[in-house]
Amino acid sequence: MTQGYSQEGKRLGIVVAGSLSQGIEVKLDSQVSIEDMAVGRYVSIEGKRKRFYGLITDVRLGAIDPRFSINPPDMSDPFIAEVVIGTSAFGTIKVLPRLIWDITSSAMQRTKTVPQPFQIVNEATQRDIDLIFGPEDEKRLVIGNPLDMEAKLCLDLELFATLSNGVFGKSGTGKTFFTHHLLNGLIQKSKAVSLVFDMHSEYGWSWRPQGSHQEFKALKQLFPSKVAVFALDEENYRRRGLSPDFIVRIGYDQIEPADIAILKESDS
Ligand SMILES: Nc1ncnc2c1ncn2[C@@H]1O[C@H](COP(=O)(O)OP(=O)(O)O)[C@@H](O)[C@H]1O
Ligand SMILES: [Mg+2]
């Protein structure tokens, strides 16, 4: 279906317009249903010597003749519907180009240009995802799947450990769950040592996700020899029948007025 170094990614359409900052406009082929398109999906665009990778950021309907919106054709007639859909009236997607794979140098770079007009746009495949995020191996951790794809999405833990990162989301969306997965991965693949300030006692011995009755093992249970628990509240730990590795005691002489001041409730 596609050509050259590209492989089986399903063809979606062709590049018709766009810019680097605003995104590339892609006219969908007539046999591709706009209902199957979704914002956030990965696509590849075949250049001559480069392959572009981007994300779908918008899905739109277009028509050659603006009069279609005032005087729509009779779509109950299957013959007219077949003639109109995909030619006179069609779907378009907006793609934000992110990365370029240079075939001659086999290097991945950030996008600094756009593909030529009428280049073919395909769905990204597992091979594309591997090329971008790398395959699963001793330094990469599988963290999920791209939207609407079976492909595995991997995180390079060595790179991850050198950057500042955050896990954000609304309450109950799986932040603690995901952070457990990341910490497990970092310990298992021995890529970094983590210091966890565990305000809600979720990472030490066991934890229960929001709205769940099921209790899960936490880091100390999973990796007893690799995890040390430092407790401030020894009694709380003993009540649960556990013993921390270290008890941390803060002397009165180590507490400054400013430490107390931040505990004061705000008046507003
Ligand atoms: N990847 C996942 N797959 C299925 N269920 C999940 C996943 N991540 C979290 N959950 C479920 O979602 C609920 C909230 O998870 P939690 O990590 O406590 O959310 P948060 O910390 O964002 O408030 C829990 O019941 C948990 O079992
Ligand atoms: Mg949480």
Q: What is the CA-CA span between the terminal residues?
A: 64 Å
Helix amount, in percent?
10-25%
Proportion in β-strands: 25-35%
Q: What is the overall number of helices?
A: 8
DSSP strand count: 13
Bound molecules: adenosine-5'-diphosphate, magnesium ion
One letter per element, helices H and strands E, the order comes to EEEEHHEEEHEEHHEEHEHEH
Largest sheet geometry: 6 strands, antiparallel, barrel
Spatial order of the strands forming the largest sheet: 1-2-5-4-3-7
Mean pLDDT: 87
Which structural category do the helix and sheet elements fall into? alpha+beta
Task: Point out poorly predicted stretches.
Answer: 1-6
| Shape label | elongated
C-alpha Rg (nearest Å): 27 Å
Question: What would you note in describing this structure?
Answer:
The chain is built from 8 helices and 13 strands. With 268 residues, the protein is an alpha+beta fold. The protein is elongated, with a radius of gyration of 27 Å. The structure holds adenosine-5'-diphosphate (ADP) and magnesium ion. Magnesium ion binds next to helix 5. Adenosine-5'-diphosphate is lined by residues 169, 171-177, 209-212.
Write out key terms for the chains shown.
two-stranded antiparallel sheet, 268 residues, 20% helix, elongated, disordered N terminus, binds adenosine-5'-diphosphate, alpha+beta, binds magnesium ion
